[in-house]
Structures are given as C-alpha cells and as structure tokens.
Design a protein that fits this description.
Strand 17 and strand 18 (about 290) form a beta hairpin. The chain is an alpha/beta fold. The chain is globular. The chain has 11 helices and 18 strands. It has a 7-stranded mixed sheet. Helix 1 (about 15-25) runs parallel beside helix 5 and helix 2 (about 50-60) runs parallel beside helix 8 (about 305-325).
C-alpha cells in the first residue's frame, strides 16, 4: 500500500474523524468527505466506557475532552414504578484501577469538536464538506469515489464511516434497510438548575419498566442534564410515521414514580428517534473498500457501546494499515480483530434491551439485588478490551 496515496474516509462523524486521525498519526495521508456543509452531531449526551477512553488516548484527544466531560461515580439501576434501587455499578477508584481508564459522559458535540480540532490541526488530513458520495468504483490498484457535485477522488483505500444508512455499505453488501426495533427515543439536555435535587448528579441513572426506560446523567461538568426516554410503540406500522408519538410517551410511562414523571415533564418532545440496528455480517470488506462504526455494525443503544465500538474500530484499522504493506492483508487483519467482537456486541445489545424491558421481572430483580457494586465480571469483556494485546474477560 503506497504511503504516498490518499486514504479516503467517507463520513465526518465521530468514527470518521477518529479513523482519519488514527491513520494520520501513523503517517498516512487522509482525505475525509462529509456530505453536510459543516461538521456536527445530532443529539446530546454520549457515554464513553473505558474501552472508548483507551481509544481516545491512542488518538491523542483524551486530555482535550477532560474539561467538558463528567466522571460519574456510579451507575444506578432503578425500578421506574416503585422507585426501588435494584443494583449499582461502582465507577470510582477501583473501577478505574481495574480498567486503567475512566467511565465518562459528555455532550456529543464536545467530543466531535475535540476530534475535529485534532484533524484540522494535522498536516496529513484534508477535510472536504458538501461531498455527498454517490458511487464507489473499486478496481485494481486504486479505488475511485464519486460525489453528487461532480468531484471525483482516487485513493489507495476507501473507508465507509457514513452511519446507519451507509452508501458505502451497498458497495460491499446490500442487505436492505436497517431493522426497526419498534422502540423510539425522546432525548435532550436541560439546564442543571431545572433538575430535581434527588436526581443524583454524580450518577448515571437508569429507570426501567415493562417496554420502557429512562436514562439520566449530567453533562458539561454539571452545567446540563441529559435525559433519554425510550418506549416500545403499540402503533408501529412499517412505512408509517404515525407512531411513537408524545401521547404514547405519556401513556407508556403512566404509573411510574414521581421522579420519573417530573423528568418526563421536561423531556424534549419536538423530535423522536426511532431505534434501528442490523444483524451481524461476517465480512464488511471488499477489495479496497471497508466499513467502520454504524456502517459496519449498527446496534441498539442499550449497552451504550455504539460510539465506543466505532472508536475501537478506528484504532484497530489504523493499527492494521500501519502494520501491513498490502491493502488486502491490512483489511483482513482489521476484520479478524473486529467482526466477531462487534457482532457479539450487536447481539448482546438486543438481549440486554429485552432484559431491561421484561414484563415479569421478579427473578431478574432478585438477581440484581444480590450483586455487589464492585462485581465487574459482566463488564470485563466490554471495558477491558484492547485493540492490541489480551483483553480482560
């Protein structure tokens, strides 16, 4: 793989910027093509577990995000109807010592800004906006990417980091549209002054009930409070947009505790986010084209691992390209490192959502009450992962 040829990255979200930065830090010339007129993230909060913190450290931006991040001390699982605390996960000193990196929460736009600043300051990276990719021609010694505005780019490798509705994915496997889970999310951040003093400003709060849940945590060093309410819609019909409405939100959360009701009164209702994923695939590479993040393995949000897995991808792909002279060898190494793990995370995310939303949950609750806050047996496999070396668990 010629070190003089450009690597083309399609998509300027968290995963695209991360892989551009990872490659450039290893001496590769990168051109990133973003379809929008400017870089930006939709949504408010993002959770970054130690596996993501470790990746951000490799990319050289962990210190840059610390001033705007929040480092919660625990994760609390609450019953949304009774208000009972079911279990907790200690995220403090013992947790950080075990994994070597912290669990942090922050505004998505702050993470994107840190990655963008690093990319803009790197001489090996060119960032092009208003470049909607419409075709990828993969042949021989180069790959050609064509954009809607008529611009054409040749590269030694093309990386599709263009999200759930990826155009690049269709150049490799056209498996139809993403799968709708029939769940929908309402989310947004509110000023911290509007939050009840009982909310737990050092915590990530999870409130669960049958086919619904609420997640809450502080952002921007405690200036904002992120809230996400999720429920399964009884009105879902394929091809219809008349489902998951605000009145359904109120109906589904009826009977929840006063603290949950107070949170719902402040939740943003001007936009809803239907929740999609895809089934795992065995390969996401063809010749000189590969995929990353949601383009490769979109997953439901229940494990808070979507962005974490994209960051892991970015580091793993940059390492593979650096270690192998041939494109084919590099991409095989990347897939070997990532396909099994991300497929497992996709499957577990679905299963974890079912576990959260059980209608009959007495047995589950008894098991949760019995576990210790410092029992990390279930999290080692996720949080102890390293793109090189032996993971925990």
């Amino acid at each position: 793989m010629s070190r003089n040829g450009e690597i083309l990255v399609i998509g300027g979200g968290i995963g695209g910027l991360a892989v551009a930065l990872g490659l450039a830090r290893r001496g590769r010339a990168v051109r990133l093509l973003e379809k929008a007129a400017e870089f930006g993230e939709i949504g408010a909060g993002i959770q970054l577990a130690p596996n993501a913190s470790r990746a951000l450290d490799d990319l050289g931006v962990l210190d840059a995000i610390r001033p705007t991040a929040v480092f919660p001390q625990r994760m609390l699982w609450m019953d949304a109807r009774s208000g009972e605390r079911l279990t907790a996960l200690d995220l403090g000193e013992a947790f950080r010592a075990r994994y070597g990196y912290p669990y942090l929460v922050m505004h998505r736009s702050d993470l994107l800004a840190a990655l963008l600043d690093a990319c803009e300051g790197h001489p090996k990276i060119v960032l092009d906006t208003e470049r909607q990719v419409v075709a990828i021609d993969d042949g021989g010694d180069a790959v050609t990417v064509r954009c809607a505005n008529g611009s054409v780019y040749d590269g030694v490798l093309a990386i599709g980091a263009d999200g759930l509705w990826s155009t690049a994915r269709k150049a490799i496997v056209d498996d139809g549209d993403p799968i709708c889970s029939q769940y929908v999310a309402y989310r947004g951040a509110i000023p911290i002054e509007e939050v009840s003093r009982h909310a737990g400003l050092d915590n990530v709060m999870l409130w669960t009930g049958p086919e619904m849940h609420l997640v809450q945590y502080p952002l921007r060093r405690g200036q904002l409070y992120n809230q996400v309410a999720v429920f399964k819609s009884a009105r879902y019909r394929a091809g219809s947009d008349d489902w998951g409405t605000p009145d359904e939100l109120d109906e589904r959360f009826k009977g929840t505790t006063e603290l949950v009701q107070a949170a719902l009164g402040k939740i943003h209702r001007n936009r809803r986010w239907p929740m999609f994923d895809r089934l795992p695939i065995a390969r996401w590479t063809r010749n000189r084209v590969t995929l990353l993040g949601d383009a490769a393995h979109p997953m439901l949000q229940y494990l808070a691992q979507g962005a974490c897995q994209a960051l892991e991808d970015a580091v793993a792909l940059a390492e593979a390209v650096d270690a192998h002279a041939e494109v084919g060898d590099a991409l095989r190494a990347y897939e070997t490192a990532r396909v099994e793990r991300t497929g497992r995370v996709q499957a577990l995310a679905r299963a974890w959502g079912d576990y959260w939303h059980l209608d009959e949950h007495a047995e589950r609750d008894a098991a949760l009450r019995a576990r210790r806050p410092d029992d990390y047996g279930d999290t080692d496999w996720f949080y102890g992962y390293r793109t090189s070396g032996t993971p925990l668990g």
